[in-house]
Amino acid sequence: MSHRGNLSKIEFTKLLSWVHNQKLSGTLRISQENKSKFILFESGEILSAYSEFPEDNFRAVIRRMQLLPETQQLDLDLEPGISDGQFARWLIEKGYVTEREFLEVLKRLNQDILLSLFEWRKGEFYFYENKFPESKAISLKIPIKWLFEKGVERYQQRRDIDSRLPVEAVFKVRDESFRQAQIAEHPYPEVRRFFEALSEPRNIRDIVSESLLTEFEVVTSLLRYLEQGDIETVTVEAPEIPETVKKLLAEAEILYAKKRYWEAWMRLRKALVEVPNDSEIQQLHRKYTI
Question: CA-to-CA distance for 270 and 83, rounded, in angstroms?
């Protein structure tokens, strides 16, 4: 198996098995939408994982685990520029979590990142042998057997949801009074955050980013409320692509045909800065990245 490829052609389960069976050491990077998730391996065993996605940071996981009273949740947004280690010490010094509780947060964070990858149907991957940042190599040693069992279960659950949910759609709450009632009265914080994120029509990825819930939590809630009739899908017209971006795309295509891949990729990169949510440009960027 190649060290580089796409999950649309190789399932994550097979990719994970390959690294484990070959007893490789290094970093597996898997990317979507210009962000990546990373898994660190030593002799085929998983040391830990980390992610660039906002729902995979410590603050989001602490919210999901409900370690703090809701009156203290706002404090999690303080000191956004500090490192993870500094943030951990800050939480412990404030008395928000104990050292043991923080270890549980770390384990939950790693588990959420790893299980989420079983849901991915696309994304470029690259394996760097014998290379991983020491600062990220916290040796949690996630049991591979447990991960496969839970991951396959997650894969099957997500496949069932996807067969019943229009995943590329934009979703909207039918009744604003219903949304406000859920925010004010629902007993589960994750449901309240889900409806807070739906203050306007949003797609799945935007709901995840806004609520800091996992994608699995979001699609599960969407399916439930869509089938109940409390949420509907809406059609949103794609914005007109500016002429400057069209020019960048044309130049990228010409450069790619001439095998000037780096220059083509840079044109696509600039186009994405101008129009970050255009799916066709994102697809071209992924193609040119490989």
Answer: 29
By the 8 A CB rule, do 8 and 286 touch? Answer: no
Mean pLDDT over 244-258 rounds to 86
Q: Is the pTM of this model over 0.85?
A: no
Instruction: In whole angstroms, give the CA distance from residue 8 to residue 51.
Output: 20
Assigned token pair, 235:
């059609």
Per residue in 5-26, pLDDT (tens digit) is: 999 889 999 999 999 999 999 9
Answer for the pair 173, 198: CB distance below 8 angstroms, yes or no. Answer: yes
pLDDT at site 76: 58
d(CA 258, CA 100): 56
Q: Reduced to 3 states, what is the DSSP secondary structure of residue 28?
A: strand
Measure CA 20 to chain center.
23
Comparing C-alpha atoms, which of 41, 38, 42 is closest to residue 29? 38
Instruction: Assess contact for 43 and 141: CB atoms under 8 A.
Output: no
CA 124 to centroid of chain Cα atoms: 14
